[in-house]
Amino acid sequence: MATEHLSPLDLAFWRIESADHPMHLGALAVFRATGPGAAERAAHLLTARCAAVPRLRRRIRDVLLPVGAAAWSPDPGFDPARHVFLVRTGEAVPHAAAGPLMARPLDRALPPWEAHVLAGPDPDSFAVLFKFHHALADGLGALALAATLFDEGTAPRPPVRPVPEQRGGSVLRRLPGILAARVQDVGQALEIGAAVARAGLPLGVPTALTADSTGSGARAVAGLALDLDEVNLVRKGAGGTVNDVLIALVAGALRRWLAERGDPEPWGAGPRALVPVSRRRGVAGSGGAGNRLSGYLLRLPLAEADPLRRLDSVRAAMDRNKDAGPARGAGAVALLADHVHPLGHRLGGPLVAQAARLLFDILVTSVPLPSFTFTLGGSPVREVYPLAPLARGQSLAVAVSTYKGTVHYGLVADAAAVPDLAALAGALRAELDELVREVS
């Protein structure tokens, strides 16, 4: 069997991780229990089903060649009990229990994923926190992997796509195209690098969005559910897309939150938000694990006091990004990973991790979910909160998904830098209320 090396971007995510800045993403799924023992039944099913998913049985190992590279290999001692855990939290709200679990790095000697079944005091509900290392999957890839663990008939099973055979005899015939592609790749890298330089330094970023460069290692998690009909009401009344409204809500909520904290009035163009863009076509065609990502970069207009003007500013910035495309601009910095030798990722990973604040100030990512209902052991999912990793020097990451007519914001913060994360979730609710009043 041919060795499957990590792609350059997957390798970058693997190398930049540190104990205080783990590079796993998560999803907190809240279930409506179908009867007594539902949490225990869910843990049993996850334990049994994960062993049948080949990608969940693979770990990452270093290889000799190419120097600095890493590859996937089966874990000969795979034990589901080291990946699926039943946790009795005593917490009525599962987000509180998710924070410490998100802070804990995955065991790098094992297949890089975990599932924590959170059984709280409410017998009518339970939650599952899925953790997948970013080297294993991006948001859509993680969804495809998690879907293999849900009940049959409630989640799509991504097709297994064969790896195309590489025929050495055709290299000469393909040489002109290879050379042309290489020249194009170099030009793209130079263009992205120039765009990063033009994007500017992190000036005027609120101190609440920065953390000590070492980071506390502790994590806080909060979530908020909003009615998609209200978001669509704003979209129809003010223009733009649903995603434009969701990003503008983040900008307005940050402005409110800073004012409530008594922080200085926002000034300047605003913090730079990195908005990842998937290069996948959807779950069914995702092709499994790995990362297929680019991104957009835009300024969050915190200094703008009018909520509709904030939305206009966000919409205009997103339109400019879309016109340029996801392969250009400062937000496409992830594509530069393809131009780095594996040894560069190995030696430069810590430096890249420390440079995150030079590239962006806050992550705002969206993970689209299918419209059907997920179930596990017959218990349906009623809420899904995506959770993003936190970059070094940054205090907050925002992820959002839409499921069954509800928008779910998942907030992950450095617990020391942001002790009042619940207040930010409340500010999101207040911002949507104001926008609804403005367009009504």
UniProtKB/TrEMBL annotation:
Enzyme class (EC, first level): transferase
Record-given protein name: Diacylglycerol O-acyltransferase
Natural source organism: Streptomyces spororaveus
Keyword Membrane: no
InterPro entries cross-referenced by the UniProt entry: Acyl_transf_WS/DGAT (IPR014292), O-acyltransferase_WSD1-like (IPR045034), O-acyltransferase_WSD1_C (IPR009721), O-acyltransferase_WSD1_N (IPR004255)
Family label: Belongs to the long-chain O-acyltransferase family.
Top-level taxon of the source organism: Bacteria
EC number(s) given by UniProt: 2.3.1.20
Domain O-acyltransferase WSD1 C-terminal, first and last residues per copy: 290-435
Pfam family, one: WS_DGAT_cat
Metabolic or biological pathway: Glycerolipid metabolism; triacylglycerol biosynthesis; Lipid metabolism
Every O-acyltransferase WSD1-like N-terminal domain range: 6-245
Record keywords: Acyltransferase, Glycerol metabolism, Lipid biosynthesis, Lipid metabolism, Transferase
Catalytic activity: an acyl-CoA + a 1,2-diacyl-sn-glycerol = a triacyl-sn-glycerol + CoA
